[in-house]
Specification:
2 copies of one chain form a homodimer. Chain A has about 120 residues and is an alpha+beta fold. Chain A has helices spanning about 10-20, 25-35, 40-45, 50-65, 85-115, and strands at about 40, 70-75, 75-80. In chain A, α1 (about 10-20) crosses α5 (about 85-115). Chain A is elongated. The interface of A and B includes residues 19 and 107 of A. The first copy, chain A, binds a DNA duplex (30 and 30 nucleotides) through α4.
Chain lengths: ~120, ~120
DNA sequence: AAAAAGAGCAACCAGGGGGTTGCTCATAAA
DNA sequence: TTTATGAGCAACCCCCTGGTTGCTCTTTTT
């Protein structure tokens, strides 16, 4: 069994990741970073609806959740996606769905035993 | 450019789903609903850290995001998970990761062409 | 050396979200 | 028919979040 002590505490962490993705602007930022690779703040601001400062704040939020990271290059700072956390989030959803499937199975076997 | 009009609007919808999952209490509720099947509010409140009203509010939030639904049974209301939205959320994450992979490929071929 | 571009910082504001308490309503159990 | 259980509604509170504006700092560019 993978991920033995997937520890209830882990769930909390994933909540933070989902919260970070739970904003349209941030989700768009992540998508853009994935589509076009590492970019500067100004570039990420272009075409968007919010100010540069807002974008900065969102990037910091994403960084806090471990979804992006940045590094300075000359006078600009480049941001890139950290795919690991994304993968973890996916696994979390997978696990939940899996539990649901198990529950369904259990339920079905109960019904069968009942009508037998 | 791939993914022509994958409708930016879709992204927004997923943000709502992630936002719903982006709270530890709600995420736990979803997990419990998946583990133990449809349950009433009082049952979902047991063992938790918050009041029944809080649970109710969270359930409504999840309902708004399309993640759960409910039906009355006698004097109690049973809540169950709607797996469809969960699946959609997963697909959203998959798409994003996929775009990232494509970007990596593009980048790699660029580098190769450059050093050739 | 002067001008412009990219970022960072701080203060401020409005709104929403999570939580609670108190009361009422309806249905099932005694 | 009482009584107790499960749930709904409404008001209220606090604080966090998303967004803005204004200023400063550093690094290019001209």
């Amino acid at each position: 069994m993978p991920q033995k002590s997937a520890a209830p505490g882990r769930l909390y962490d994933n909540a933070a990741v989902f919260a970070a993705l739970g904003d349209a602007t941030r989700l768009r930022l992540v998508a853009r970073l994935c589509e076009n690779g590492p970019q500067s703040i100004v570039r990420l601001t272009e075409g968007g609806e919010v100010s540069r400062q807002a974008v900065t704040k969102h990037l910091r939020a994403l960084e806090h959740a471990g979804l992006v990271r940045s590094g300075r290059s000359g006078r600009e700072r480049l941001w890139e996606v950290r795919t690991q956390r994304l993968a973890e989030a996916r696994r979390c959803l997978d696990q939940i769905s899996e539990q649901w499937d198990h529950a369904l199975e259990r339920l079905r076997s109960l019904v069968e035993a009942d009508s037998r």
